[in-house]
Amino acid sequence: MFFVASVVSWTGLWVHRIAVTWLAWQMTGSAFWVGMVAFCDLAPAVVFSPFAGAIADRVDRVRLTMVSQMAIAAQAATVGLLLAAGELTIGLLLVLEVCSGIAASFAQPARQSLMPALVPRADLPAAVACNSLCFNVARFIGPAMAGPMIAWGGVVPAVAFNCLAYLMATFTMPLLRVPPAERRGHAPEASVLADTVAGFRYAGRHPGIGPLLIFAAVANLLVRGVQEILPPYVDRLFSRGPDGLAMLTAAIGIGALISGLWVANRGRLTGVTRLAVGAIAAQAVFTVAFVTSPWFPLALACAVLMGASTSMHGISAQTLVQSAADPAMRGRVLSLWGLIVRACPATGALALGAAGEAFGLKGPTIVAMCLALLVVGWGITRMPVMVRELEGAAPARRRGQE
C-alpha cells in the first residue's frame, strides 16, 4: 500500500513538474524563468527541511505526512483553477511553487522515516531501493502521461491529476500498519531549533554520513540542473515541442527504472559507496554527450544513461544514510538528504538557466560537468573511510547494540 501510494503521488508530481515547466516556457520563452520555477519548487528545502526533520522526529509522522500531502494537493488545485480562470501569472506561479516546495519539505522526512517500521531491518536496503524504484517508475509514467495530456487538454488536466494523486496518497496513510513506537522518533526533550542543530551536528560528526552528504550536495548542485530545466534544451538544442520533452523525460525514467531494478536486486550494502560515487562520474560524462549530441535519437540514448546513473547514485546514497543513521536521528538525517536532493538541483537549475541566457546552454553545462568530475576525485579520496563507516564496522556495531 505504501509503495502503490508512492507511485501514484510521484506520478502526479512528475506530470505536474512537466506541466508547470512547459507553462513557464510558454509564458516567458526564457530559460531563466523555467529555472526559477524549478528553483521555487525545490529551494524551500534549504530553509524548511532541517526543521521538518526535527519535527518529524517528535510528532506523529503519519499525521504530518497527511497534512503535508493535503497541502500539495491544495496547491495543485489552486494552480489549475487560476489557470482555467485566466488569472495565473508567472509571479503567482512562482509563489504557488514555493508553497508546494514547503509542503514537500515536511512530507519527505515524515513519509520516508516510516519505511523502517514497515519492513524487517534486514530488508531495509532492498526496501529503500524499491522505494526509489517507485519514484523512477513514476518518473517514466508521469512524463509519458504528461505529453499527451498537455497536448490534448493543456496544463489544467495535468495539475488536476496531481491534485487527485496526492489526495489518494493522503487517504491511504491511516491504513498503514505502523507500530505506535515507530510513529515518532522520541518525546520532545528540547526546542525544535535545538533538535535541528543536533541533527546537523550528528550528521557532520559522523565519519561516514558527513562526507557522503557533502559529496552528494556538491555533486547534485553540478549535475542535476539539466534534468530540472529540460524545456530549453528540448527547444533550443533539438527544436522539439512537448512531444520531445515527454520523450526525453521518459527516457531518463526508463534508465532510472532499469538501474533501480538492478540496485534493488543487489539487496546488500557491500559496494554501495562505490556505486554512489562512481554514478556521479558516469552522469557527468553522459550529460556532456547529451548536450553535444547532434542527433535527437542519440540524445535519447544519453538521457537513458543519465537517468540510470542518477538513480544509481540516489538509491545508493539514501540506502547508506538510512542504514547508518541512529533511529532517533532518522528524520533529521533524512531531512538533510531531502534538502540535498531538492535544493541542490534547484540551485544548479537556476544557475544553468541564468548562464544559458548569457552564454548558451552547451558551454555552461560542460563546465559544470567538468567540475563534477573534480568532485568525484575528492569523493574517491574519502571512499575508504566512508566504506568502513557506512558498510562495515559502524553498522555492524549498531546492529549488535540493538
From TrEMBL:
It is a multi-pass membrane protein. It holds the Pfam family MFS_3. It is found in: Cell membrane. GO terms for cellular component: plasma membrane. Keywords: Cell membrane, Membrane, Transmembrane, Transmembrane helix, Transport. The chain crosses the membrane at residues 7-25, 31-52, 154-176, 209-226, 246-264, 271-292, 298-321, 333-355, 361-380. InterPro entries: Bacilysin_exporter_BacE_put, MFS_trans_sf, TM_effector. Its main location: membrane. The keyword Ribonucleoprotein does not apply. The keyword Transmembrane applies. This is MFS transporter. It comes from Siccirubricoccus deserti.
